[in-house]
Design goal:
single chain; 383 residues; alpha/beta; five-stranded parallel sheet; 10 helices; 30% helix
Length: 383
């Protein structure tokens, strides 16, 4: 008779995903398809739904129903065989390898990935949190729609969109469209404000000219080189004077949640986590980050745009798979310097922007709609 053999058991590694941004959708897809080694997957987010950023302006304008641009977080996690913890990540205890949650609880990890996005700049200005509606998190677009519909019901007043990057411009166009559909374009005035001299300066001269013409076509007032210092229920404070605003939408640029800098990990000047081309933290091999939360060390000027979060997704999944297998995590990936931007103008048209080139038409909106719907279809239940 042979002596009994010792049974050695190996604990399954725990992968904690902080947030369910665009990049983490690809990680859950890889888990579902068996492209990651067996592991315990825990997703921590207080958002019950994933809202696809490319379609949010169209939802405001009436092009899409709410159900057409959202994914159920619970469904995404369940399909990957993971566990959902319905609270936001607000900290990281690297010594204990724990993520800290908004309710005070903690989740241990062997590896964690952060894709909790960004927050708009200027939220701490007087009255902004109390009286403005921030565009992020994207689920708050429902509040924008409700506020615009209340203005339309009154039939008079002023709507202000603060921030004239791509997101602010698209939102302004689609607010104007919603008002045209409900009031015939009369009574409620839309103003787009920016601390930059012109809208979407990051997209180049040709795009700026087309945006300016479209703003004039839809009777949206643009005020550039304006610094908003505060917000009340009825006005904006601007350089010592005031502008009327019964509804203020806050669509300013991206800054990092404060807790990222408190992790002790290397960050850029705005507080976003610095990562290598494999999307691995420069200060902790067990921590990864993607989307707006991450800044590539070798490409720090990469815009905080959804297209990069999407393109980081498959690379993040590949890096996590290697780490789980104990293989060296290496990558030479660099994001492309140019990307196609398609800006909806709220009239079944869009402006296509690529480097110094820009064009406009219904074809561009058709292309945008096809790209956006294809992205969401990839993650729908049943695929």
């Amino acid at each position: 008779m042979h002596p009994p053999q010792e049974v050695v058991s190996f604990a399954m590694q725990r992968l904690v995903l902080g947030g369910l941004g665009h990049s983490h959708l690809f990680v859950l897809e890889a888990v579902r398809q068996g492209r990651l080694p067996p592991c315990e997957v825990v997703v921590c987010t207080g958002e019950p739904e994933h809202s696809y950023s490319g379609m949010v302006p169209g939802w405001i304008g009436g092009d899409y129903r709410r159900d057409e641009l959202i994914l159920s977080v619970a469904d995404q996690v369940a399909r990957a065989g993971g566990r959902l913890v319905p609270h936001h990540v607000v900290g990281l205890d690297r010594a204990q390898r724990e993520v800290i949650l908004a309710d005070g609880a903690r989740q241990q990890y062997d590896m964690c990935s952060i894709a909790t996005g960004s927050v708009p700049t200027g939220l701490d200005l007087p009255g902004v949190r109390a009286h403005a509606i921030p565009l992020k998190p994207l689920g708050r677009a429902a509040e924008i729609i409700a506020a615009i519909d209340r203005r339309a019901l009154v039939g008079s007043g002023h709507v202000a969109v603060v921030g004239a990057g791509a997101a602010g411009v698209e939102v302004a166009f689609n607010i104007a469209r919603r008002l045209r559909c409900t009031t015939g374009g009369r009574g409620v005035h839309v103003t787009l404000l920016s601390n930059e001299a012109r809208p979407v300066p990051e997209r180049g001269e040709a795009t700026m000219r087309r945006v300016e013409r479209a703003l004039a076509r839809h009777r949206i007032t643009f005020r550039g080189s304006v610094l908003v210092n505060g917000v009340s229920a009825t006005e904006l404070t601007v350089a010592g004077s005031s502008l009327p605003s019964d509804c203020t939408v806050w669509a300013t640029g991206a800054t990092a949640p404060e807790w990222l800098a408190e992790t002790g990990l290397p960050t850029d000047e705005r507080g976003f986590l610095l990562v290598n081309p494999a999307l691995q933290s420069m200060g902790d091999a067990a921590v990864f980050a993607a989307g707006d939360a991450a800044t590539l060390t070798d490409a720090r000027d990469t815009p905080k745009a959804g297209v990069y979060a999407v393109r980081m997704g498959p690379r993040l999944a590949g890096s996590l798979a290697k780490r789980l297998r104990g293989v060296a995590v290496e990558s030479t990936w660099r994001p492309q310097r140019r990307f196609l931007a398609l800006l909806s103008t709220g009239d079944e048209r869009a402006i296509a922007s690529w480097g110094p080139f820009a064009a406009e038409g219904r074809w561009a909106m058709t292309l945008k709609d096809w790209i956006d719907r294809r992205f969401l279809a990839r993650f729908r239940v049943g695929r």
